[in-house]
């Protein structure tokens, strides 16, 4: 059966992995909308290759270029923030939400409002919007399938079980490129070192988040919203090989885990085909070759990000949106050489310490909290004069 598919963030790493699967299963999917932020050439090429109905460029100033690049293709061109939201609204059986950051929130919410299936990679949108998003999912009867490998693993391990029987949900973490670095070396870590992830090839922002462990912090908040077993039943375990993608322990002592290669096409395929399965070109799992799977407790002294995330969940309201916004600003500042590595999480802690906003009740209020926290983050990073 042919299913229609939209990819918000088609030009990124998750977009590329998704389209790789579509390319290998051309009979199974028809592409509705593809979006990108600023890479007109890449977006136009993908839209032509997959014969999309519409291609949307986030940066509206680039719309004339996109029109030109798509001339004669039959693909409609659109641009700007409202066009991204319209792309989310355009009917599609599955929408893959793969824009990075809170920039993906409004388009993802638009896709949720369709009441069909949203495959979520854009964790920042759920972290920021929290209950506003989960309420919309419930109200519209939407199927929300996690693509984030840990959450996809947990989703699979929970399937067929009663959430009331869960003793622990354990999110595994690779620990990132600096997991074995001494604390005094971390302030000198460079952007080039931070984006060189040992196991996964990903966009720059999530790679830095993995290095600070803020990725695991955001995933902790993401898990809190996706799997309502209570914050006290969620924990994090460092697993350097990234083979066990997460696990669920039940009250009878059974632990179910999902294992697989460190290849995002596995969780993406699981979401695209759910509840069936589809073929992927990923290497089969060769545990004899891997030899050892090791685990250790996270070190929240060297990597305080997961502590901040847990505190934000417990504080509730807009705390997670503030944390996410501050982190986005700080990561961008780190990548452009304005602040040191350890200042990223320090900035988040400083902004959270400024006080918490009134809990946002709808999308506009979440966006307002996000915007305000960004301003405070920029202030927090300014050098003391
Ligand atoms: P990426 O940087 O490779 O791609 C991001 C996409 O978002 C691109 O298409 C880009 O054009 C678009 N984009 C960026 N800023 C935008 C803006 N302001 N407006 C509109 N579009 C914008 O990132 P990625 O690694 O593909 O990650 C995408 C999302 O998936 C992130 O939320 C990330 O946390 C999550 N995720 C990624 C991986 C991975 O392996 N890459 C794994 C799990 C979760
Ligand atoms: Mg993940």
UniProtKB/TrEMBL annotation:
Any Pfam family: DXPR_C
MF GO annotations: 1-deoxy-D-xylulose-5-phosphate reductoisomerase activity; isomerase activity; manganese ion binding; NADPH binding
Domain 1-deoxy-D-xylulose 5-phosphate reductoisomerase N-terminal: 5-130
Cofactors demanded by this protein: Mg(2+); Mn(2+)
Similarity comment text for this entry: Belongs to the DXR family.
Record-listed NADPH binding positions: 11-14, 39, 122, 124, 203
Coiled-coil features, chain-numbered ranges: none
Domain DXP reductoisomerase C-terminal: 259-374
Binding site residues for 1-deoxy-D-xylulose 5-phosphate: 123, 149-150, 174, 197, 210, 215-216, 219
Name listed for the protein in its UniProt record: 1-deoxy-D-xylulose 5-phosphate reductoisomerase
């Amino acid at each position: 059966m042919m299913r229609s598919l939209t990819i918000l963030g088609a030009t990124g790493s998750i977009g590329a992995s998704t389209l790789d699967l579509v390319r290998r299963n051309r009979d199974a999917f028809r592409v509705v909308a593809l979006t990108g932020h600023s890479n007109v050439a890449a977006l136009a090429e993908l839209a032509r290759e997959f014969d999309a109905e519409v291609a949307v460029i986030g940066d509206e100033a680039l719309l004339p270029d996109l029109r030109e690049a798509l001339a004669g293709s039959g693909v409609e061109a659109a641009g700007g923030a409202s066009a991204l939201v319209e792309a989310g609204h355009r009917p599609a059986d599955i929408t893959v939400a793969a824009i990075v950051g809170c920039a993906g929130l409004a388009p993802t919410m638009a896709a949720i409002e369709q009441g069909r299936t949203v495959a979520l990679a854009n964790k920042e949108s759920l972290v920021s919007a929290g209950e506003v998003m989960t309420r919309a999912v419930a109200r519209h009867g939407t199927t929300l399938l996690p693509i984030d490998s840990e959450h996809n693993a947990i989703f699979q391990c929970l399937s067929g079980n009663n959430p009331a029987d869960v003793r622990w949900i354990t999110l595994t973490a690779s620990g990132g490129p600096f997991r074995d670095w001494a604390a005094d070396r971390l302030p000198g870590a460079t952007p080039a070192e931070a984006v060189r992830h040992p196991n996964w090839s990903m966009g720059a922002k999530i790679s830095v988040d993995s290095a600070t462990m803020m990725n695991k912090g955001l995933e902790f908040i993401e898990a809190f919203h996706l799997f309502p077993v209570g914050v006290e039943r969620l924990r994090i375990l460092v697993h350097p090989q990234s083979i066990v993608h997460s696990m669920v322990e039940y009250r009878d002592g059974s632990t179910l885990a999902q294992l697989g290669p460190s290849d995002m096409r596995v969780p993406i395929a699981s979401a695209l085909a759910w509840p069936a399965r589809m073929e992927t070109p990923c290497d089969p799992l060769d545990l004899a070759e891997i030899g050892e799977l090791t685990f250790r407790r996270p070190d929240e002294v060297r990597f305080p990000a997961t502590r901040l995330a847990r505190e934000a969940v417990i504080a509730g309201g807009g705390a997670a949106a503030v944390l996410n916004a501050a982190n986005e600003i700080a990561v961008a500042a780190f990548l452009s050489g304005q602040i040191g590595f350890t200042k990223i999480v320090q900035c988040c802690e400083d902004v959270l310490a400024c006080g918490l906003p009134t809990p946002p009740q709808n999308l506009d209020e979440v966006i307002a909290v996000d915007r305000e926290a960004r301003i405070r983050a920029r202030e927090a990073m300014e050098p003391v004069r």
